[in-house]
Amino acid sequence: MKNFITTLQHIWKIKDLRNRILYTLAMIGVYRLGSTIVLPGVVPSVLASFASNKAHSNDLLGLINIFTGGAFNNAAIFALGIMPYITASIIIQLLGFAVPYFQRLQQKEGESGRKKINQMTRLLTVAITLVQGGAYLTYVKSIGAISPNIPVSLFWFSSIIILSSGTVLAMWLGERITDKGIGNGISMIIMIGIIARLPQAIIFEFQAQLNQGGMLTFVLELAGFFIVTMLCIMVIQGVRRIPIQFAKRMVGRGNANIPQSGARDYIPLKLNAAGVMPIIFAQAIMFLPMTVAQYFMGNNAGAQTGGLLRSLNDPFSTATAILSFLLVVVFTYVYTALLVNPQQYSEYLKRQNAFIPGIKPGKDTADFIDTITTRVTLPGALFLGVITILPKLAHAAGINQGFAVFFGGTSLLILVGVVLDTLAQVESHLLMRKYDGLVKSGKLKGRSGSGMQIGANM
């Protein structure tokens, strides 16, 4: 405890770090305030009544509400949160793998290309927000949450503008945090939305176990949550280091062979190179049957088919768990193959006059990296698949669904990843000022890791 207080004192002494942390907290406060301001013309009591309906508490909309920190169920100005921006970023990133023009922007045009991509992402975000805003207002209207005293046309026009402005403002807040605050702003906005629901979920679970006299069970649940979190940290930071060596070269007119700077390095192949993207892609694929399920729920003729689709609409059902596990494993391999290009690694090493000891340059190097990547990806893919279905297993074990969601899936991975990245930045500020780091031994690493970064990040 004493060391913790000392570390906080060191953080407060560094003016630049202190200002960045305070600035980040201020931007987060603005975002959380916007998550409580309801759209004009919406009746909050109707929304609260619908959200408390158990029949709708564990569907896809409940998961979206978690990512927006409750703003979705509140019909707030930040109801769509930062998710349209994330969708736009994913689309632009996928275009970078498939379209040569976007490949040039990402890999060859440097800072000017990055600015063009950012501008395209912002414009695409606005377009996606307009579409999702219309769908969201349709959802609000379907539950009867629009006041009858306001003209429908005026409500739609004003609300779509407000929702779009809210998403753009949330995007701007994230960019300000990245520039002047601490951590990645967009990831921080998502994390704050998720973590805002965590205390309420823990308190609800505590009260439920207290009423049932199962305090030991509650302690075991917290212990299980801690263990799962530690496993996520291990996987996020886990890398397979491929050693590389730089060839010696003559310097000046002397006879001495002086090694190139950084003569020994390594290629870090991450155990989970795909991050949370496979889970996001799997959830996107699940949108289709869930939408169809909503259609069949009120259709007696399609009752049999609707029964299967309704099970897919429940994130805690067995059918959803099996399908999600398979999709995540497949998408992990697909996305890793897009990110890690063995041929690009081989060419980069050749340009840098470097090689892997015992492996011939060229095709042999590419084949070697491809083999190692395939082997490393298997445990990472299986782990992501298990993490995806852990909420289902936790719910089956008797944990309430609000708390079970945090036992795995995108929520836990985002929480762990963003916290690690932020703490890594804080530690870098401490070490630059000759202070001790946040850990006694070694160095805290974020998701980016260390070593020679080759491939998608070049």
Automatic annotation (TrEMBL):
Upper classification of the organism: Bacteria, Pseudomonadati, Bacteroidota, Saprospiria, Saprospirales
Keywords: Cell membrane, Membrane, Protein transport, Translocation, Transmembrane, Transmembrane helix, Transport
GO cellular component: plasma membrane
Annotated protein name in UniProt: Protein translocase subunit SecY
SUPFAM superfamilies reported for this sequence: Preprotein translocase SecY subunit
GO biological process, one term: protein transport by the Sec complex
Family per record: Belongs to the SecY/SEC61-alpha family.
HAMAP family: SecY
Leader sequence residues: none
InterPro entries hit by this protein: SecY, SecY/SEC61-alpha, SecY_dom_sf
Transmembrane segments annotated in the record for this chain: 21-43, 75-102, 123-140, 152-173, 185-204, 216-239, 274-296, 316-340, 376-397, 403-424
Membrane topology term: Multi-pass membrane protein
Subcellular location: Cell membrane; Membrane
Protein role: The central subunit of the protein translocation channel SecYEG. Consists of two halves formed by TMs 1-5 and 6-10. These two domains form a lateral gate at the front which open onto the bilayer between TMs 2 and 7, and are clamped together by SecE at the back. The channel is closed by both a pore ring composed of hydrophobic SecY resides and a short helix (helix 2A) on the extracellular side of the membrane which forms a plug. The plug probably moves laterally to allow the channel to open. The ring and the pore may move independently.
Main location group: membrane
Native source species: Candidatus Opimibacter skivensis
Subunit (UniProt): Component of the Sec protein translocase complex. Heterotrimer consisting of SecY, SecE and SecG subunits. The heterotrimers can form oligomers, although 1 heterotrimer is thought to be able to translocate proteins. Interacts with the ribosome. Interacts with SecDF, and other proteins may be involved. Interacts with SecA.
